[in-house]
Amino acid sequence: MKIISCFSQKGGVGKTTATINVSAAFGLMLWHETQPGQEPGRVLIVDLDQQANTDITLSGGFFGQRQPRNLGPYDNIAGLLMLDTQLPIFEIITNANIPVSARNVDFIPSNREKMLQVEPTLQSDPANGLFRLREILEPIERAYEYVFIDNPPGVSHLSVNSLVASTHVILPIQLEAASVFGLADSLKAIKSVQQKYNRDLQVAGILPTMCNFRGAGQREFYEGLCKQYGDLMLPPIYHRAEISDAFTSGLDIFSYKPARQSGVMTSSSSSTHEYAEVAEELRNRLDR
Prior knowledge:
It contains 13 helices and seven strands. It is an alpha/beta fold. It has a single domain (about 1-285), classed as P-loop containing nucleotide triphosphate hydrolases (Rossmann fold), CATH 3.40.50. The protein has a seven-stranded mixed β-sheet, with helices on both faces. Helix 1 (about 15-30) crosses helix 13. The chain is globular, with a radius of gyration of 18 Å. The mean pLDDT is about 90.
């Protein structure tokens, strides 16, 4: 099982959108590879951000109808992290219903109110607080091929939990000064976790998001990053309204703009091509 953290010190760089769409792309790849009579490999999404936007999106979208859940107030990722749920993780995990054609992506539900209690709870347990997520994910190792974790911005007990539990990390970045300067801080935080807690953690790639190359500014930032970080750079994702529209509707881009042909991931939507290219490149790096 490969566990991939979507991490950035800076907020607003598209971590949640990237987590959902890359996870859906992985789900589609696993689905297309399934032989007749076999079940497709599965992908799990974990939302550690206190805003719980991933959970909201995967539960039907910001304006959609919430999926009914027969779960208690602590039967979610917050309860698991605080040891306040009596349910095993397999009874909490919920199907995300994405991508719509495959439905082999699941998520651990979240709770905005309860997530606000997690950080101080983890801080109060210095011996084990940073390893809680690793322990939570151990029982599902054989059930999932890939786990993607959406993180809160900055360095906290929650984000360090994610990095400690992960095998790989991807860093979404906007092509603007504040985000580019914050990338160095993010890489320093990752290096610190590698040295102290998780020597096997690898940086899988830097993902430029919300790109607009019509002006010279973003193009210069992109070329500078490519020169500095070389092979760590992943293909860019362009800024398009359909990506945010899909997010609001509770869908990944592949379900929002589905392919007309059977067995094909991409449609006429350029966004599906971009996320498919990112996912394929990322998977090649993960499986080396």
